[in-house]
Specification:
2 copies of one chain form a homodimer. Chain A is an alpha/beta fold and 381 residues long. Chain A is built from 12 helices and 12 strands. Chain A folds into 2 domains: 142 residues, Aspartate Aminotransferase, domain 1; 212 residues, Type I PLP-dependent aspartate aminotransferase-like (Major domain) (Aspartate Aminotransferase, domain 2, 3-Layer(aba) Sandwich), CATH 3.40.640.10. In chain A, strands 2-8-7-6-5-3-4 form a 7-stranded mixed sheet, with helices on both faces. A 3-stranded antiparallel sheet of chain A has the order 9-12-11.
Chain lengths: 381, 381
């Protein structure tokens, strides 16, 4: 067999996928697994009819920037909700999920050897996407802050990427922190990328979009996700917003990589844009309340976690357990049938943490999961 | 503004997209344009209900190889239709369109500087995708044959890519030709990639899948498209079939680039797999009959084209016109309101050709288009 590329051979699978596959196998064996490892929240949403959508347009390619109706609705929503105006004609492209949007953006800004600064814990695809573009991820340990970032900037630095609200901590970057990062970006002429896929999963007034403070988007590139905010992660609809030059390069990448997201789903979301939000928003609010209660419960039983109040994730410390995060999660799954994701998957500095996702289980089940985690920490200390 | 990457800044937009955008603008001005430039055929297909699909599974991520039901149906179909057996568990991955499948495959086999041999006329995304992976496309002029390919093989050659049935000529590679290419691949230890997206758009018995002659898939990687064969190009469902090691690397790329195609559409197609084919197949047959009649008509009025009997494309010679293919198509569009795609978009050796797609217009309209093309050739000679 001819050889395969180094870049994909050395690429790592997401740790969360590995553990979710183990869950799947246990379930097939008939085990009752408590799943705290999913990157999704489940909402109650109806399925509207597809019959009224533009026919036969739903079957064919759409504009490779995304259908105009949806771009216009998003522009209106961003202006009203996030004080973030953009031109729906030239400053946005709708893609097959925000993951693709981020990858094509790295492709659009990085030359080989360029460095991208990102802080742990981090979503595994950031460093892997950078490497797939022949760039170099520069990972800042979890216990530093954005005010420590400047020392990581070199002549090869091309971008800083942050994620707010943050997966897996739930942290929301403050306006002051974003302004500091933007100042760095301007001073060193580098890009600031902000992944805001969980923008609706924060308490009212807490979330600040990078787009509201860099309205010209001269240094900013913002990602967001229809899939996440609408509870339809499997529909693969995301987007990237920036100035028209960035978007034009992403557009060209998109034309050669994917063409467009599934047209029929673009039309569906455009037709029910506000209607679905009206259904999901109260459920997100409930989820945040549940998060708060769970956070209080963790406080009560003495489980430490990194600061954060948004999303449905907690990044929980397993100190003083002597186990590595992989050993811990494997034991938790194989002996107690509870799945969480090892912190190591979020960076080398995070091997004393695990990610717990409270998006799908009931409050009682989450409590049971946390009790077991606490117990396992205690008996392995 | 910080700089953008060289690789996307120098990437070319597909010529077809450029001309289709011009068509769109003319239509907005109220002009009645005869469109012979689309990369799609339009079929009459019903829209089945989405209500019976697995709920709420349709909203969530699917397995990143694609849902098992669809992989199994495809394996059965390939064995029966193309004498091409593969393991649905490990030898296929369903992606958001075959374009993404091809890109992620280039990513999975190419190291920077590796060369890929491909013959003109060619689909613009092949060379652009290779360049986006830091590989080097090596383009063979249109007037050579597969028996001339060996002289293009160097120490840096990593793959040969062919497209059968071929866009834009309609040519179907013979078993003898594929065997010759496979012999080259084995002799030089390189990959042979075959894009078979138009496999159903050929006369019965004419099409030979590469997978039927390299059953171990040790040197072969095969792409195909649900979007094309089902007349739903906008749904972005394609796949790649090869040995498990290739597929594993593509899987990792897919996990970091896209995750999965739109889950709800995977379930829809799995539920109506044979039903939709039963509806589209007779329409494809009609389309091939139309192609034959149009071919006869071109013969009658003296329009030359490259050999081919499949798909809904013709690659028509504009010799002895003195115009370049871009000048020709611009004139055709602006003076006669007929759109075709300049041959230059398919390679430097093809500037005396244009692509005519007969997939969407009526027979009478196609005739009128061809009469105008002939006339324009004559008056610009």
């Amino acid at each position: 067999m001819p050889t395969l590329s180094r870049v994909t051979t050395t690429a790592e699978e997401a740790m969360s996928i590995k553990y979710n596959t183990m869950v799947y196998d246990l379930k097939r064996q008939g085990k009752n697994v408590l799943v705290l490892s999913l990157g999704e929240a489940f909402f109650e949403i109806p399925l509207f009819s597809f019959k009224d959508l533009p026919f036969p347009g739903i079957y064919h390619y759409s504009h490779s920037r995304g259908i105009p109706e949806l771009r216009t609705s998003l522009a209106k929503y961003f202006k009203e909700s996030y004080d973030f105006p953009f031109d729906p004609e030239q400053e946005i492209i709708i893609t097959a999920g925000s993951k693709a949007a981020i990858h094509m953006t790295f492709m659009s800004i990085l030359d080989p050897g360029d460095e991208v600064i990102m802080q742990e814990p981090l979503w595994v695809s950031y460093p892997e996407q950078v490497k797939l573009c022949y760039g170099v991820p520069v990972q800042v340990p979890y216990n530093e802050t954005v005010y420590d970032f400047e020392k990581y900037i070199t002549k090869k630095t091309k971008a800083i990427v942050v994620n707010s609200p943050h997966n897996p901590t739930g942290y929301v970057y403050t306006k002051k922190e974003l302004n500091h990062l933007l100042k760095l970006a301007r001073k060193h002429d580098i890009w600031l990328l902000c992944d805001e896929a969980y923008s609706d999963f924060a308490e009212a007034g807490e979330f600040v979009s990078l787009g509201s403070i860099d309205k010209k988007k001269e240094h900013s590139i913002i990602f967001n996700s229809i899939s996440k905010n609408y509870g339809i992660s499997g529909w693969r609809l995301g987007y990237v917003i920036s100035n028209k030059d960035v978007i034009y390069n992403v557009l060209k990448a998109n034309q050669h990589l994917i063409t467009c997201p599934a047209t029929i789903l673009e039309y569906y979301i455009a037709a029910h844009f506000l209607e679905i939000l009206k259904i999901t928003k109260p459920q997100i609010k409930q989820l945040l309340n549940k998060r708060m209660e769970i956070s209080n419960y963790m406080e009560k039983i003495g489980l430490q976690r990194l600061p954060g109040g948004a999303t449905f994730y907690f990044f929980v410390s397993i100190n003083p357990s002597k186990l590595t995060s992989e050993e811990f999660c494997t034991k938790l799954l194989q002996e107690r049938y509870i799945s969480a994701v090892p912190g190591l998957g979020y960076g080398k500095s995070c091997d004393k943490f695990i990610r717990v996702s409270v998006g799908t289980a009931t409050f009682e089940d989450n409590k049971r999961g946390l009790d077991n985690i606490k117990e396992l920490i205690d008996i392995t200390s």
